[in-house]
Amino acid sequence: MVVDDDADILDVVQRSLRKWDLVSDGFTSPVRALEHFRLNSHLYSLVISDLKMREMSGFDFIEQITQIKPDIKVTMMTAFIRDTVDIPEMLRGILKVDSILEKPVGIRKVCLHVRKQLQIG
């Protein structure tokens, strides 16, 4: 599952994942993504979420999905770590975040990251 309220970013990430034969559901609404996840958590092994979204922060979204499925792998994708070196450690201390991708991030890096997290190839 990929959640980013920027439709353009979501589209590029999903198209790229498909080219790498990686299936994902994408949501621009974290609220709708959470509703879907509640009903279908068994379908997901990895969630990639933006940090700053309009309807719900990535912090709240991740906190709620990890309450539903504690063993879900979580990747935070954000542009807000560039100026603050300690934020990744802070995130890991507050939330169950397995990894962080800093925007802007290359599509190849995202796809390789997903394969690594899912232990594919």
Give a nutshell description of this structure:
The chain is of the alpha/beta class and 121 residues long. The protein has helices spanning 7-19, 30-40, 58-68, 87-94, 107-117; strands at residues 2-3, 26-27, 46-50, 73-78, 99-102.
Question: What does this molecule look like?
Answer:
This protein has helices at 7-19, 30-40, 58-68, 87-94, 107-117, and strands spanning 2-3, 26-27, 46-50, 73-78, 99-102. It has a five-stranded parallel β-sheet, with helices on both faces. The two termini are 20 Å apart. α1 packs across α5 (107-117). The protein is of the alpha/beta class and 121 residues long. 24% of the residues are buried. It has a single domain (2-117), classed as Response regulator (Rossmann fold, 3-Layer(aba) Sandwich). The longest helix has 13 residues, at 7-19. The protein is built from five helices and five strands. The model has no long low-confidence stretch (mean pLDDT 85).
How much of the polypeptide forms β-strand, as a percent range?
15-25%
Structural class: alpha/beta
In this structure, how is the largest beta sheet organized? 5 strands, parallel
CATH architecture: 3-Layer(aba) Sandwich
Distance between the termini: 20 Å
| Helical content band | 40-55%
CATH class term: Alpha Beta
Mean pLDDT equals 85
Number of domains: 1
Strand order of the largest sheet: 2-1-3-4-5
If you compute it from the alpha carbons, what radius of gyration comes out, rounded to the nearest whole angstrom?
A: 13 Å
Number of helices: 5
Number of strands: 5
Series of secondary-structure elements, N-terminal to C-terminal: EHEHEHEHEH
The stretches of 5 or more residues where confidence is low (pLDDT under 50) are none
Give the CATH H-level superfamily. Response regulator
CATH topology: Rossmann fold
